[in-house]
Amino acid sequence: MAHRLIACEHCDYVHVENDIPAGSVACCIRCGSPLYAAEQPRFDKPLALAFTALVLFVIANIYPLLTFSMEGRAETNTLGSGVLTFWQEGFPFLAFMVALTSIAAPMVVIAAHIYVLLPLSMGWTVPGVKRVWRVLAIIRPWSMLDVFLIGLLVALTKLTDFAQVIAGPAFFAVCCLIPTVLLMNITLDPRTVWRRIAPAGLRYLTEDDLTEIRSNGSGQNNAKGSDAGLMTCHTCSMVVAARNVDHGHCPRCGAVVHLRKARSLSRAFALLLTAVVLYIPANVFPIMTVTYLGRAEADTILSGVAALVQAGEWPIAIVVFTASILVPIIKIVLLGWIYLATWLGLSGPLRQRTRVYRITELIGRWSMVDVFMVSILAALVKLGNIASIQPGFGAVAFCGVVILTMLSAMAFDPRLIWDRAGMRRETLRNKTLRSNSLKETQGSPS
Description:
The relative contact order is 0.14. A hairpin with a 6-residue loop joins strand 3 and strand 4. The protein starts with a strand and ends with a helix. The chain has helices at 44-62, 81-88, 92-122, 129-139, 145-159, 169-186, 190-197, 207-216, 264-284, 301-310, 314-344, 350-363, 369-380, 393-411, 415-443, and strands at 5-7, 14-16, 25-27, 34-37, 66-70, 73-77, 164-167, 230-232, 239-241, 288-292, 295-299, 387-391. Helices cover 57% and strands 11% of the residues. The strands form 5 sheets. A 3-stranded antiparallel sheet has the order 6-5-7. The protein has a 3-stranded antiparallel sheet with strand order 11-10-12. It is mainly alpha-helical and 446 residues long.
């Protein structure tokens, strides 16, 4: 393979892309972040898995998910029932987020793989392939069927205590769909797709270019892309020279490229502070109101965990407590610490700080468990005064906390962790040099 350049998206350290053994992952030597997996040039396995996922997705949306029976009455729901219930109850924001994360985003992910991989396998030419693959990179983090399944299991556990619940075909389809999509992503190398759909004659920067760049510069700073005039596309990860970028767009995928995200730190801080404000009503107001035999009872996140503990469902209670209480708090605290340390330009353990950022970025989505649980229960339990569940404002606030922390982590540019620390060291070094120079001047004879 050609020894193309690849820059770490977390610290901007420039590497030379080489062949690695099958099943292994290349990591950045500076911050330890994963760079790329072993190349998988074939598309037959991910394409077959994409078609399988499409069939399972259709089944999951057409057939019943659960059937709830009590006092001779029965209710069934589908994957989209929660969206409709939220809309009817006057919660359009919740309806939109549940529709996006459990239906629209998974559908786009599956359809995009088929639309791009099928023509590549058959040698066809279809329009808009680059645009579709670029949209996939944006929408992928919002596909949360795996989190939806956890919410479904929590709802199932709550219902089995006082009624008969039967899992429908859609339940088993969702259980099979999640590992199918996971295998589809594992068996596909996105780098190979980008190279196959790239414009003809596109030139990649190679090891020779890096040698020339470093020879024209001085010191270790040339290991960082921005110091060498290199920019990395956030969508396709192509490294390009700033002077060769046409109107600020990547020559391979057409996305906007820049040395650093504009106003990254201020936007991340603003989103995180808004999430902190919403976290208070998210825990004070009820996420749902449960009516059972004419008696209504408000249920907050914490009281829901307590109810699971009293019912002896310790594993589910631990999962809900971790995802809905611990994870949001830990994520807010850790992101706040990272942003503050970056703003102050603190050096310290930069490698560990980058690892913490990566982890918080990955776990934030799992807090949507409670939102999915409420959507399932509200759509399924509709038996009037016998048994009914209505969503509450706490669910809106909590969903806002989850989305805002995710957006905050996405808005932040982790390369600033390394940039700001280097700038502070350079500032302190210059101050020391000026101070020593001043002392020498004052101590010298006139």
